[in-house]
């Protein structure tokens, strides 16, 4: 059996910008190679439109950063990074459709159903979802079968009724309702947080990690997921469409509960900063040395403007 290369320990001087550019280039190349190739009836055009050349790629970066922290298998991490991005992309395609959020702008361009029609958008989302699991189960032996199964289980759990889909169901059912902070946190821990947490868990699954480190990294992932949503709610209020890349103010227009509506703008900003500091402490508690990329990603999430 061919042994897949593992991530090497990072140098003591970590250049996050260079690291991120290299990882983004790697992920983009892999996605371009795997998405929408040889599909019938031009379905691939809609699939590629939904995935390529857009988005922050936060979830793939989290997979790769976590895999690097545990010196995981590179081939497995690459496939996991692309798979989680495909699940994220499919969810956006479906969420933007008229039967859900009915949005016309995503990643600075028309949404998939606006560009290709509702029927093809629905099929493109379906095809992206299935492709994610195909990528996690390659026919060659570079990714051990037990690792393939673990990666599939983590991603399926995060995407289904006990994760992203369940969170979206709560979101739709909560329009116009008053939620407590605990209820709002649960909704977003499923809708947004589950896939972010799965990204870290999938990265860890590409290597070997102690129970202590695993628990600390998952605590980091939970805090990051919550911080991401708090910042998202803040940006929905303060950013414009050109900066945000999607229609701002949609939550308020649809009377959806948010951290800003619950806490106020400045308290929500302060809460995001508190979550960031807690996430850094979780990384320190892991005892792992190579967590610079994870730390920098947390800073990027809380400091982002779109």
Account of the protein in words:
InterPro entries: Isoprenoid_synthase_dom_sf, Polyprenyl_synt, Polyprenyl_synt_CS, Prenyl_diphosphate_synthase. It holds the Pfam family polyprenyl_synt. It comes from Comamonas aquatica DA1877. Its cofactor is Mg(2+). GO terms for molecular function: metal ion binding; prenyltransferase activity. With 306 residues, the chain is mostly helical. It has one domain (16-303): Orthogonal Bundle (Farnesyl Diphosphate Synthase), CATH 1.10.600. Helices cover 69% and strands 1% of the residues. It has helices at residues 16-34, 43-51, 58-69, 74-95, 112-116, 118-135, 145-159, 164-173, 181-205, 211-238, 241-244, 250-253, 259-263, 265-286, 292-303, and strands at 105-106, 109-110. A two-stranded antiparallel sheet has the order 1-2. A hairpin with a 2-residue loop joins strand 1 (105-106) and strand 2 (109-110). Helix 3 packs antiparallel against helix 15. It is globular. 44% of the residues are buried. The model has no long low-confidence stretch (mean pLDDT 91).
């Amino acid at each position: 059996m061919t042994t897949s290369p593992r991530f090497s320990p990072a140098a003591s001087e970590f250049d996050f910008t260079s690291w991120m550019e290299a990882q983004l280039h790697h992920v983009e190349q892999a996605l371009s190679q795997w998405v929408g190739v040889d599909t019938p009836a031009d379905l691939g055009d809609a699939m590629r439109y939904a995935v390529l050349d857009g988005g922050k790629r936060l979830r793939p970066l989290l997979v790769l950063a976590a895999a690097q922290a545990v010196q995981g298998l590179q081939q497995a991490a690459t496939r996991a990074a692309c798979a989680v991005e495909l699940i994220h992309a499919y969810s956006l395609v479906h969420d933007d459709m008229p039967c859900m959020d009915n949005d016309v702008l995503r990643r600075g361009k028309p949404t998939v159903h606006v560009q290709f029609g509702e029927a093809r958008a629905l099929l493109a989302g379906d095809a992206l979802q299935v492709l994610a699991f195909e990528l996690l189960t390659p026919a060659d032996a570079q990714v051990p079968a037990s690792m393939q199964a673990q990666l599939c289980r983590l991603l399926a759990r995060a995407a289904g009724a006990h994760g992203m889909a369940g969170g979206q169901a709560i979101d739709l059912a909560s329009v116009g309702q008053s939620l407590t902070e605990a209820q709002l946190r649960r909704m977003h821990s499923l809708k947004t947080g589950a896939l972010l947490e799965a990204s870290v868990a999938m990265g860890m699954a590409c290597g070997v990690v102690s129970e202590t480190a695993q628990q600390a990294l998952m605590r980091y992932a939970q805090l990051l997921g919550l911080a991401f949503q708090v910042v998202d709610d803040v940006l929905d209020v303060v950013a414009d469409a050109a900066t945000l890349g999607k229609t701002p103010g949609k939550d308020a227009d649809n009377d959806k509960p948010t951290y800003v509506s619950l806490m106020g703008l400045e308290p929500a900003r302060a809460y995001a900063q508190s979550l960031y500091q807690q996430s850094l402490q979780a990384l320190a508690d892991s005892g792992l040395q190579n967590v610079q990329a994870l730390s920098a990603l947390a800073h990027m999430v809380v400091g982002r403007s779109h």
